[in-house]
Write a structure and sequence with these properties.
This protein is mainly alpha-helical. It has 21 helices and no strands.
Length: about 450
């Protein structure tokens, strides 16, 4: 077994990369949780509501301008070509500078829209991080392309640790939300320096090759539209809730979402970095054994991630009561609802990368657009009719209603697995339904406060 894991076969690299991604993600979340526990005792709940709004806007700008460079390097036949990589890096830098300018332009309008004056200065500071991300060398994506992610994991963890130390120090000094924004930007700066120093490979140079630009634009136009829709499915709840909830309630909701979304964020990291290489190098239509290996990987990922989400639905209130002070008690019951509503997303998590690996970015966009449209409409309707519980339920309902579109998209790539979906859907109904019934009284009490 040991020689197999040390080899360079696809499955050996998948296993090693899975281990590194899980280790890196787990360590990152432990660091994030530790900083969260410290900062919630230094700052006030409204600070986390403000940072939730800052994150919504900065992530929204990133997703609405995403040219799909990461996916292009992972999928393209020219993914190791220096001219292609340098052109991608040049495009990425221009985009980063534009995003920083946009955070400055949107700062005052966002502050007025959400009634939060602090956004006027927090947004431009957080935007510095977007500019620094644009300078990230492509050898990071090259490492992911070849499932060699050990050093990338180390870089991310060291940078995160530095960012947390800075955040805590600034929070003690300023007692202001600006500490969170500044610490986040400085973390990106450290990550940039370490990426250049610690990762192997050539340094990028400014380059604008017409052929590479055309390929990036050809693939990126659908990725651009897809990630705009992805924003609605992953950040739309907080963008909308920012108008419905007070900053204090928004801060409590953000703590709940942070804990409840841990499993699916790990699943998304694994899906993004593992499934494209697997679908790309071992397509199911090439030989039957490939489809069998894809199914085995899908079952393992779904069971592992979904089990964590089920556990969070049951123990979420206990975790909050144990780790946070009384100001955040209502986050616990909200975790139960969020973990239950996110379960359908975990079940279908591994499908959509099949089309991206085959270069079918148009099909990928059609599915994400369908799901985003349904979720946004359901969220607005659910909030108006049933309050927060209706909005949370919309996230799971949208996945179910867009399921036929996802199956149509995956059919040409032989990625469908109805038995897998049926089994895990039934298990989730039992596990999540039981958790909701068990915590029913606490859930009703918490919802009355939102």
């Amino acid at each position: 077994m040991k020689p197999a894991l040390n080899g360079q076969s696809l499955m050996a690299r998948v296993i090693r990369s899975t281990s590194w991604i899980i280790l890196g993600f787990g360590a990152a979340q432990v660091l994030r949780l530790a900083s969260n526990l410290v900062l919630t005792r230094i700052l006030f709940p409204e600070a986390f509501g403000l940072m939730a709004l800052v994150a919504v806007i900065t992530i929204g700008l990133s997703l609405f301008s995403d040219m799909g460079i990461s996916n292009a390097i992972a999928q393209s036949a020219r993914g190791d070509d220096p001219d292609f990589l340098d052109t991608a890096w040049t495009v990425q830098i221009l985009r980063g500078g534009l995003l920083w300018a946009l955070t400055g332009a949107l700062a005052l309008p966002a502050a007025l829209f959400y009634g939060a004056p602090e956004l006027a200065y927090c947004l431009p500071v957080a935007g510095i991080g977007l500019a620094l991300q644009g300078l990230t060398p492509t050898k990071v994506e090259t490492a992911y392309r070849h499932l060699l992610v050990g050093r990338v994991t180390a870089v991310n963890l060291i940078a995160q640790g530095f960012g947390i130390i800075v955040m805590v120090a600034l929070a003690i000094w300023t007692q202001s939300v600006i500490a969170l924004a500044a610490g986040s930007a400085l973390q990106e700066g450290v990550k940039l320096i370490l990426s250049h120093k610690m990762l192997p490979g050539r340094s990028n140079r400014f380059r604008w090759e017409p052929a590479a630009t055309r390929e990036l634009i050809s693939m990126g136009k659908w990725i651009f539209l897809s990630t705009a829709c992805f924003f609605l499915t992953t950040q739309g709840d907080r963008a909308i809730l920012g108008k419905y909830l007070t900053l204090e309630a928004m801060g409590v909701y953000n703590i709940a979402f942070f804990l409840a979304s841990f499993p699916i964020q790990l699943g998304q990291a694994l899906n993004q970095r593992l499934m494209i290489p697997v679908y790309r190098d071992k397509p199911a239509h090439r030989e039957p054994g490939n489809r069998k290996r894809q199914r085995q990987l899908r079952y393992a990922l779904t069971l592992g991630i979904l089990s964590m989400s089920w556990l969070m639905a049951w123990v979420g209130p206990w975790l909050v009561n144990m780790m946070y002070d009384h100001r955040y008690n209502h986050a616990g019951p909200i975790i139960v609802l969020l973990a239950s509503s996110l379960a359908p997303s975990i079940i279908v998590l591994t499908y959509d990368r099949a089309s991206l690996a085959a270069g079918d970015t148009k099909g990928f966009f059609f599915y994400t657009a369908t799901r985003a449209t349904i979720q946004t409409a359901l969220f607005l309707w659910g909030m108006s009719q049933f309050g927060l519980v209706g909005g949370i339920a919309a996230m799971g309902g949208a996945v179910i209603l867009s399921y036929p579109t996802l199956m149509r998209q995956t059919r040409p790539h032989l990625a469908q697995d109805p038995l897998h979906d049926f089994l895990f859907c039934g298990a989730s109904l039992l596990m999540c339904g039981g958790a909701i019934l068990y915590h029913k009284d606490a859930i009703l009490t918490a919802l009355a406060q939102f």
